[in-house]
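Human: Note token order:
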Amino acid sequence: MGLLDHKVAVITGSTRGIGKAIAHEFVREGAKVVITSSSNANVQAALAEFPPDTVYGCVCNVVSIFDMEQLLVTAASRFGHVDFFINNAGISDSFRSITESDPEEWGKVIDTNLKGTYNGCRAALRYFLKANIKGKIINLAGSGTDRSSNTPWISAYGATKAAIARFTFAVAEEYRHTGISIMLLHPGLVRTGMVSANNPAPELARQLSTFNTILDIFAQPPSVAARLAVQLVSDWSDSKTGIYLSALNGRRKKWLLLTYPFRKILKRIDRRTY
């Protein structure tokens, strides 16, 4: 028996990285999952990694409210209903100052991360309310969410994560009376393509040694965040909303910092890109 038996989840941006790790963890706990990407090739490649009949793949552009609404229709048609919606899709801007930034790229980050989260929440809430389901929504936090977390050189990303936090808590309050849970998950620092130092922008190239040391100290596998996602959608959160869990809270940061010298000496630093 799994914690999520007979449950159905939709996870945006889930063909790699953190989203795919959450999908794998949900399947291990008994859920059926709909994974998405804007690329059909990515969807097909990811589907091959899951047991048959546990996962369904959809091509979806989170910036399109129509795509997000159709995603819920497709998921419910495939598996009968939807219980959880995870707004995981996200991108980052290049490592540049605001005066050197590309306005088009900056806007694309805002659209994907913030507008995509809005579209996902709106579509999921309308579905849950119409179907009379006490569903659960998880939005993804990140660098910029916490007050002490500044994001120089990736100002668009940081701005979206700060805004997503305020948006999440506002919507949680708006729908508190419905029994629908709207929550925030900070996955911590994970070595995904988003933080890859391949072909770094000039500023990142200058700071590459510091950047790599920070990754060595604080980066964790996406499975840490995936387990927190399971906790958020489990019975643990029933009748609760506005919850915030972080895979890199103060206690975890201290532990990673204290153990770093030993992990370095024993060569137990995981440098894989997920």
